[in-house]
Amino acid sequence: MTYVPKTKPWAHQQRALDKMEGREAFALFMAMRTGKTKTLIDDFGRLENAGEVNDLMVIAPAGVYRTWEGGLADHLPEEVRERSLVHTWRAGAGALEKRALTAFLKTQDPRRPRVLLINIEALSNVTRAQELALEFLGQRRNMNAIDESTTIKNPTADRTKFVVKELGDLSNYRRILSGLPTPRSPLDLYSQFQYLDEGILGFRSFYGFRARYAIMRSLVLGTRTIQIPVAYRDEDELRAKIEPHSFRTTLEECYDLPVKQYVYWDVAMTAEQEKAYEEIKAFATTEIVGHGFVSASQVIVQMLRMHQVLCGHVVTEDKKFVELPERRTTMLLDRLEEYDGKAIIWCSYDADIQKVAKALEKRFGAGRPNEFTAVARFWGGNRNTREEEEKKFLRDSRCRFMVATAAAGGRGRTWTVADLVVYYSNTDDLEHRSQSEERPQGVGKTKSVLYADLRVPGTVDVRIIENLRKKINMAASINGDNWKEWLA
Fold first, then answer.
1. pLDDT (tens digit, 9 = 90+) per residue, 422-435?
2. Domain spanning 11-209+244-249 has what CATH number?
3. Under 8 Å between Cβ of 445 and 252
4. Is there a shared CATH topology between the 11-209+244-249 domain and the 261-486 domain?
């Protein structure tokens, strides 16, 4: 019996399936909205149909992994879906859910494929989640997929060690999925491909890999000496190594998308902000000058401290959080008064999420209790309610604004109802910026999306935003000679 997908793959999806066929280890480097979820599900379906695997485990970030429930419903053929059992890991599960998990693990009928969805954060330190992953993969032939695989890019992180060392050998077929596999440097590839197959890169240690592809320099921090990458080399060789084991495509290569439009919304500082900004700038310069070698991380830390002042808050030396008068929020509200559609507002800090959401509700109305709200939120502080708030944003015309952090909502979300994206604040994280820009984009989108960045001219705001828009990695651009230019 031949596996027949629920819907015919698009041409680029079919190319990915053709290239992946028969490979135990493969990377799908497919941008958001190009259908990597469907491609992975079709790959699993044909392997299950051929008797090569019984089970699938998908590991994804907390803000993404539950979306696979919908993906399975949308893309699995009815015949396969009716035979399949799907279990989604939830921390603090009640008695009913625990019984369901027990029954799920006891199912050994080869005609019943099983799918386990689990979040990568749980595998960092939740013993029961780790035990579950090991037990599940150890029972039958399986495929294990890491969605948003840059979450395992840090070779020293507990979750990376667990996934690479503990789960890799238990996985018959291994897949990684990412739209931006190297958000900060080529070194990000190491752990991702170690999970797939250490023979692809040909290095058994990260330090050997780093020595080959990065130029390092020593940096003395107090009593410690650390190694800092200052440049990269032989990147063509690295690309050649991974090319046979990966498929890469962008949204622009697959669809005729409306052109993105970018604008700046300039904001002036208050007197209190100007004073704090200049003090931190002077202190930052003084602190850095004493070092024989200036690292990018030093400069970026100082830039983000200055950036927090521009957003209206600062943390003092004794760890006290202090709010500063600012004009950023008023500018946002005034501009949104001129807009009558739905908008996504990205904030970098928890304090900004709460401040902006409160201001939007006050200006645009929160409705009577339990009736409607103009504002939905998606961030780490509302894990228990954010899925419901997302539904309101997508379905209720009165819920016009999604206020979110890119760390929580920047991946795996489909918010194409919005035609305006506002960056209330940005950090140096290129992956967060790239991923978050794709949320309102999608197949069938005919209206151009406007991206507005709030900035204070003549400050670090400008440097941060310009580099993010140009897809430039700040850490790779700052060096010992030009660092003063970055601390505007």
1. 999 988 788 888 88
2. 3.40.50.10810
3. no
4. yes
Closest CA to 206 of 193, 219, 216, 191: 191
> Residue 265 phi/psi, 5° resolution?
-115, 105
What's the whole-model pTM score? 0.69
pLDDT at 352 over 80: yes
Q: Which fold has domain 261-486?
A: Rossmann fold (3.40.50)
Q: What residue type is assigned to position 461 of the chain?
A: D
Q: What are the angstrom distances between the C-alpha of 128 and each of 89, 122, 315, 399?
A: 10, 9, 37, 38
Stretch (H or E) spanning 138: helix 127-139
Q: Is residue 227 within a helix (H) or strand (E), and if so which, with residue range?
A: strand 224-232
- Taking the C-alpha atoms of residue 247 and residue 244, their distance in angstroms, rounded to an integer, is 8
Q: Is 28 exposed, middle or buried (0-12, 13-18, 19+ CB in 10 A)?
A: buried
Query: Is the pLDDT reported for residue 197 higher than 80?
Result: yes
Beta partners for residue 361, in sequence order: none
Q: Which of 290, 139, 117 is nearest to 220 (CA)?
A: 290
Interval 270-301: pLDDT, tens: 998 998 888 888 776 545 444 444 445 667 77
* Distance from C-alpha of 302 to C-alpha of 474, rounded to nearest angstrom: 13
Residue 338 is given by DSSP the state: T
Q: Exposure of 367 by Cβ count < 10 A (0-12 exposed, 13-18 middle, 19+ buried)? A: middle
Question: Higher pLDDT residue, 55 or 288?
Answer: 55
pLDDT at site 225: 83
H or E stretch covering 122: helix 122-125
- Using CA atoms, how far apart are residues 388 and 62, in angstroms rounded to an integer? 15
C-alpha closest to that of 302 among 291, 286, 320, 290 = 286
Domain boundaries, the chain: 11-209+244-249, 261-486
* Contact of 117 with 87, CB cutoff 8 Å: yes
Estimate the share of the chain in helix, then strand, then coil, as percent rounded to the nearest 5: 45, 20, 35
Among 425, 434, 412, smallest CA distance to 452 is for 425
Alpha helices in 347-486 (DSSP H): 350-364, 386-395, 406-409, 430-437, 460-469, 474-477, 483-486
- Angle (CA) 380-34-464 rounded to 5° is 50
Tokens coding 289:
């000058």
